[in-house]
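thoughts on my protein:
***
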Amino acid sequence: MAQAVTELRGVLDGSEPPAGLTHPDLLELHRRMVLLRVFDERSVVFQRQGRIGTYAIFWNHEAIQAGATFALQDRDWIFPSYRESAIGLTRGLPVETVLQWWRGHPSGWWSPDEWNLASICVPIGTHVPHAAGLAWGKKLRGEDTVAMAFFGDGATSEGAFHEGVNFAAVMGAPAVFVCNNNQWAISTPIEAQTRAESLADKAVGYGIPGVRVDGLDVLAVYEAARDAVERARAGGGPTLIEAVHYRAAPHATADDPSAYVDPVRVEQERARECVGRYEEFLMRTGVLNAERAEQVRAEAEQALREGIAAAEAEPAPDVELLFEHAYVDPPPSMRDG
């Protein structure tokens, strides 16, 4: 019978990274985290400047995104929610493509099968069954592809989460379900959602393994994801990973968290943010130095400058695209505007 691991798994407080990770691997993880961090920070600025639309902030979630996806192969699929909008950057998706998605421009749409990256899912949890279905389909075809879906703690209260995870479990689908438990579903705290002691406990009901990890420890996230991916690829079925931390930024640029969060707790959490914590580990172990860290940050900042310039250089979209694949003959009322 499956059993949830309710204690938090951590690595960074020790001195040894997970087996198999080389120094170049550790530095690549750092580069990806910094790129995601800079994308998020600059996107908030772009939104305030009116250059992109309302934006879902993922500051301090980079350890989850970079750590979990680092366990995947290029043939594996990623199913992001809006909180992972920039996760395609870990696969080389152009910065401007993601920015254009937030600008509502057609050049922000990509073909999922070119990147093995599903479209960004805004409805809560509806992509969990999609990931389960793709994983099952790959299994039926005899392929060893794994599907990894990301979602927040709020999604575990949705029916689509139950349906998707239960289906994957019954079918033995090669899927990994990564729950980003930042303890807030917008303004709803985790204790108002469930009486379970941990969200990983929900795995027991589906007969699959459930693991809790420190969501600010990129190596712990990677280690849990690596084990889950290996298990899925070997035919062992899905795993639920609960990455636990505390949301240290607003839900989105339209959110005012001061109405519902404890500012003291937020400042405590910000002080132990995941990128700085990982950099400290790398410097302590001699893998990274200050000069290299500054260079990585500078390269990420340059990528964002070039990305917003490329996005804004695109011509305005043709409004006919709104109707092209929806109606053969659009109703006259839709053309009047």
